[in-house]
């Protein structure tokens, strides 16, 4: 029985040894996610193995709104021409910036292989330290007004978080404080400002990549409403009352017959004079106040 099995097995082994093995080009990356700091070098690894072809075609592409070539026909293209190199299929980009962040694809074409194309994807994330944020602080505001201070750092990666300072003391918002702070958006809100809110305000942006950065402190002055503003408001209210009183008097005058010559026994001339004088006085007073 064993001898019969050996007789059957031997031809099978010989057949397998002499049969062509159908392998294809294989492409992979030992580090598909790469994070580096801005202005350093980024190494995008790409390893491949072919069946027969000893000189496969190697290409690198970057995906964005479309697909652009990084390395094609043994040459670097566009902005990579002066600051990249390739060893085997591994790509190195020198002095990367945030614009270099994105998804890259390594493609290896072995025309002599059974399956001629293989590819691997590497994602590059360029980390950017905080930049000096832009801060919006008004120079003055009236007591009782609402206030929102703005702070933004658009360049840092990962996105910055924010802290506000008043007179170089950090502001910490709680349920008891008259203000609120959004550390992700960089806003400081005060619903109703008081004289105690006067001071020097600045904002600081920070992330995990580099040292925090702060804008220049700016003066905020909280002022009382000026006296002439109070006078204007009171004068406007008085003027409105005067006009209303004038209208009432004219209506009463008409009702009693001023227009028909009945002036309560004062005589036509005196009655007309008094009625006209009253209207003229009210009109003059209105225009004088205005």
From TrEMBL:
Q: Which domain of life is it from?
A: Eukaryota
The residue range of the signal peptide is 1-24
Q: Where is the Ig-like domain?
A: 11-123, 130-221
Q: Would the keyword Membrane turn up in this protein's UniProt record?
A: yes
Q: Which UniProt keywords apply?
A: Membrane, Signal, Transmembrane, Transmembrane helix
| PROSITE patterns per record | IG_LIKE
Entry's InterPro entries?
Ig-like_dom, Ig_sub, Ig_sub2, Ig_V-set, JAM2
Q: Mind naming one GO cellular-component term on file for this protein?
A: cell surface
For biological process, the GO terms are:
leukocyte cell-cell adhesion
TM annotation in the entry: 229-253
Entry-linked PANTHER family: JUNCTIONAL ADHESION MOLECULE 2 PRECURSOR, JUNCTIONAL ADHESION MOLECULE B
Name listed for the protein in its UniProt record: Junctional adhesion molecule B-like
Q: Which organism is it from?
A: Solea senegalensis (Senegalese sole)
